[in-house]
Specification:
single chain, 174 residues, alpha+beta, 8-stranded mixed beta sheet, disordered N terminus
Length: 174
């Protein structure tokens, strides 16, 4: 069995952690903004919420995202959709926080414009609103994206998909 050298593993860890870190902050901020806009107290943000897209989603179409490899009924799914390489992991078109459902859970993301987009996501199993990591910085909670994440985690190039009216598939790691 070929194992990557320690420096390659460390580099992969740093790239993956950097790529997925904005997702946790973006999804949590969107949920807090939506709750605050509805007059909910701050403590209500941490409670499981009904499926909802970001309150600030711009006009655009809604897209169904079928999330595969969900650990059923455990925690919440955090999703963020991006419309270009320039905004990838910086400014999402739409985001959502939904309770984890079945092994394949469908999530609606609204406010998607253009002809291609990419989704990054993770499953928050421990309910702390951020992706848990081990001492090396590797994710310990399921994470994923649309497309086919490369060896160094998701990127715009590996995650972008074309909008064609069909549900989009995003797969979580095991």
């Amino acid at each position: 069995m070929n194992l990557p050298c320690p420096s390659a593993l460390a580099f992969t860890t740093l790239v993956l952690a950097a790529a997925l870190a904005p997702l946790a902050a973006t999804a949590a901020d969107a949920a807090a903004d939506a709750a605050q806009a509805q007059g909910a107290p701050e403590a209500a943000v941490a409670a499981p919420a009904a499926p909802a897209a970001s309150a600030a989603a711009p006009a655009g179409r809604c897209v169904s995202v079928d999330v595969h490899n969900v650990r059923p009924q455990q925690g919440q799914l955090f999703l963020a959709a991006y419309g270009s390489a320039e905004t990838y992991n910086k400014k999402p078109l739409a985001s959502a926080r939904v309770p984890a459902g079945d092994a394949i859970t469908r999530v609606q993301l609204c406010g998607i414009g253009g002809h291609e987009f990419a989704v990054t996501l993770y499953q928050d199993l421990d309910g702390d609103g951020k992706m848990a990591k081990n001492m090396l910085g590797l994710p310990t909670e399921p994470w994923g994206s649309t497309g086919k994440p490369g060896m160094f985690g998701p990127s715009w190039e590996t995650g972008k998909v074309t909008l064609n009216g069909n549900p989009v598939i995003a797969t979580l790691s095991q």
